[in-house]
Specification:
This protein is mainly alpha-helical and 61 residues long. It contains two helices and no strands. The protein has one domain. It is globular, with a radius of gyration of 12 Å. The chain starts with 12 loop residues before the first helix and ends in a 22-residue tail after the last helix. The mean pLDDT is 78.
């Protein structure tokens, strides 16, 4: 298992999205994506590909 330290606190919009039945991670005017780019050095946290623009999720639940 890999450990990826993440910055805190989480973007505020995630709290509201968690309460929804079908919430999304793509909220807050790109706040989540900006945080992912910062925390993972512009790489995908799953496949480590360095992409010109990251997507938040590879998978559809």
């Amino acid at each position: 298992m890999l450990h990826f330290p993440k910055s805190h606190p989480e973007p505020p919009c995630l709290k509201d999205e968690r309460l929804k039945t079908h919430g999304t991670y793509d909220c807050g005017d790109g706040d989540v994506l900006k945080r992912l780019q910062q925390d993972f050095h512009n790489k995908c946290y799953i496949c480590e590909a360095r992409l010109p623009s990251l997507v938040i999720e590879h998978f559809v639940p």
